[in-house]
């Protein structure tokens, strides 16, 4: 910071210190300025203007009071002129102080956040600032300081603030005028119609301003489109995955007219290529694994051969059995108009599909996601699979390369290993499931190594090569990877990419309508799941931030209800209790925070851990491994998050999900009867461990003395 900035900072500190030391607020009153006004009106106006500018420029409390006082002392028009120009000048000074003193430091420390704000200001800054000025949800001094950190021009800030604050200033000044007319603080003097009307206007102004700004915003958004005189549908849904199906179901249930558009298969990824087939595969793999463990259960001479083709056909059979739940026939019977084809947004109310246009009052985009395949060199030389296409595999490969150490990669790597395939799992991280705590990852990795998975961690995939083997004459294909500065070649027969997913946003007409995407490539939505157009919503994988079937269904409820009934009441989507499970063996289930996230967010916590290896039912089932780990508020039983690793962890976590959703602590779980012997007792024992650690030692000491006395 240069000398000029230090001097400016010192001057500001001295001025603010003087204000509080001398109790400056005692002078920001009607009585103080009224006494001056009788002697010299012009000097009083100049003094008042200077004080107002100083209070606003230094971000001191009292600007709202001064606005009311200006009306009481000077009257409506003079008071409005003084308050309006003084508040604008003061706000601009605060804006410039912030820019001069804080901007460089903020850019260094929080550049990514400031870049986001600057992009918004560049795109829609003046209107955004005007909205903030008209709807005083954010204190005005905060607006002044934050806007000083952006790239907005001072002149733009000044004139937009002047106009934006004018209506609110007028309301406050008018209230002051009416107060100034009250000669005595009696019930008769206060309860005048004009004064009551002023206070009513003061109270409802934010509501009126909000409605007005929403009307202006809609006009700006929709002005270049012709709104249909009537609509074919109340709701049109693009995509028949989990989010689209739930949205359509709700709309049909409340007797709305709804169309559901799907270009591929009903049920989306979850039914056809995701949750259902992967869990069917995992079940077959677990059975094969149990056959190998038969001697642990006292069974001799048990053998079994994996018929890989039959296993993969069984997966398809499971899909076919579940398909009717998501079929066109079922949803048509519910009253949903199911349309097959690719949908494209033509306007905020029109969707084109199969050469026809469908008009709709509201639209929900639920187009899902697809596997992400990194653009590695040589990719075009090989055939590869993703989590979407692997289900077409019928011939058992000798060696499978799985790239990715997240939930999908881990589930499939372990399953294929247990089905007799040699799996090499490659990931650039130091451990699998990097979003989970280290003790969780270690348990899973230990099991993977025991199963025979060839783990290649800290390997950076670089390129694929296909060459002629000089010895055998056969074609050889391999992945070239980097490992601690060394080049590594990994041979394979087939490759499975499990490197994440990306949203399906192309060819929907989003660009033409100016619907923004986030940095992650998902559609940007607000807390009500609305895009920039209030009647167009998005949910599921295409919207994020979570890519789970159950969160897609969760979001879909908010989309459907807000779209159909939002004019009466809108609901903000609730992400406070989001659970998930990775279906490896052992399973990893979580809800809320883990230790890693709590540390990153600076949240204080206590850890209570119970080892499932000590649980009677787990011992009886030969599944005595894993743990329940609960994070709580220090000294309290309030649950911040739970991680369960072990047999049926995905089922066990449900009790904690309910507890967190309804605000129940560990004492309530401990006080609930759990059936013996069941795995769910692990939840009770974890709560018991917390209770033991928080036992009132002083009271127990007194009780011990009491019992000793009673023995005499």
From TrEMBL:
Domain VTT positions: 64-177
A molecular function GO annotation: oxidoreductase activity, acting on a sulfur group of donors, NAD(P) as acceptor
Keyword set, alphabetical order: Disulfide bond, FAD, Flavoprotein, Membrane, NADP, Oxidoreductase, Redox-active center, Transmembrane, Transmembrane helix
Cross-referenced Pfam families: Pyr_redox_2, Pyr_redox_dim, VTT_dom
Name this protein carries in UniProt: Pyridine nucleotide-disulfide oxidoreductase
Species per Swiss-Prot/TrEMBL record: Endozoicomonas elysicola
Family in the record: Belongs to the class-I pyridine nucleotide-disulfide oxidoreductase family.
Co-factor requirement: FAD
Record-annotated membrane-spanning stretches: 48-69, 76-97, 126-147, 154-175, 195-213, 234-254
Domain FAD/NAD(P)-binding, chain residue ranges per copy: 235-556
